[in-house]
Amino acid sequence: MISDTSMLWFRLAQFDIRLRYRNSTFGPLWITLNTAIFAASVGFLYAVLLNQPIKEYLHHLATSIVLWQFLSATVVEGAESVINANDLILNTKMSPASCVFRCVTKNFIILLHNLVVVAVTMVIAYPNVGLNFPMFFIGVGFLIIHATWISFIVAVVSARFRDVPLITASAMQLLFILSPILWASKVLPSGSLFLVLNPVSYMIDAARTPVLNGGTDYTSVLVSAAIALLGSLAAHALYRRTQHRIPYWL
Predict the structure, then answer these.
(1) Angle at which helices 164-178 and 133-160 pack, to 10 degrees?
(2) pTM of the full predicted structure?
(3) How far is residue 60's CA from residue 54's CA, in Å, rounded to a whole number?
(4) 3, 136, 176, 228: least buried by Cβ within 10 Å?
């Protein structure tokens, strides 16, 4: 059964999405439309610039952008999730953790909307290929864990140091350029430091590879799992140590 706390996160996340698109004609459908328009417009251009097959590159870009948008938006918004909910934390029994989970839940709902774009480009690019959906969902599960533990860390640190949200947004922009989102990993030599030392490449590849060619990059899956475990332990330890101080920082 779903707990009352989980339902609270879900209801608050729904409210955030409805508030964002209130009085618009298409409502939350804009989430999917924006992603589809970006993937189509940028995809055709970069497929030519990078000399890639258009259908395959469009699917690569759509999948990469959808996964990246979830991770990036969750982390950037998560950095301010506790700060923006200071009234609720100070005047109700809502915990700082609930604010972070609210942010993660909202962006997970947006991720589900955007998976429609991935499905459409997948049918176009690989109509007759059996893709590895179980490993895709496992990779997405790890990505959700990554988004959660990173959000917890930046949310706690941001409550204490108000420059951290700006630093987080800048860092995510830099990682977008340095990570294989617009470009594919195969364009770089095997063992390139831009891939080996970039944790985002493992996080994205663990979920992306199974729906690109039906295979699975088990190295990325194992590294992603290890990062998820260590990151979750670090976030849990930090939150337990600071949860009683957060209201005073606000």
Answers:
(1) 150
(2) 0.90
(3) 10
(4) 3
| Rounded distance between C-alpha atoms, residue 131 and residue 122, angstroms | 9
Mean pLDDT along residues 107-120? 90
Tell me what pLDDT residue 200 has.
Answer: 93
- Which DSSP symbol is given to 189? P
End-to-end CA distance of the chain: 34
Per-residue model confidence (pLDDT) at position 221: 93
Nearest alpha carbon to residue 83 among 207, 247, 241: 247
Q: Locate tokens 């990682």: which residue?
A: 175
Residue 73, exposed/middle/buried by CB under 10 A (0-12, 13-18, 19+)? middle
Query: What's 184's DSSP letter?
Result: -
Is-contact 81 99, C-beta < 8 A? yes
Torsion of CA 80, 82, 88, 90, to 10 degrees: -130
Task: Report how far residue 164's alpha carbon sits from residue 16's, in angstroms, rounded to the nearest whole number.
Answer: 23
Give rounded-to-5 percent helix, strand, coil for the chain.
Answer: 80, 0, 20
AA letter at 179: S
The length of the chain, given as a count of residues: 250
Higher pLDDT, residue 99 or 67: 67
pLDDT digits (tens, 9 = 90+) for 19-60: 666 655 555 677 788 888 888 888 888 888 888 888 888 999
Q: Measure the CA–CA gap between 36 and 39, rounded to whole angstroms.
A: 5
Tokens read off for 198: 């970039």
Residues with Cβ < 8 Å from 161, sequence gap 6 or more? none
- Other CB atoms within a 10 A radius of the CB of residue 97 amount to 17
Q: Which two tokens stand for residue 155?
A: 């949310």
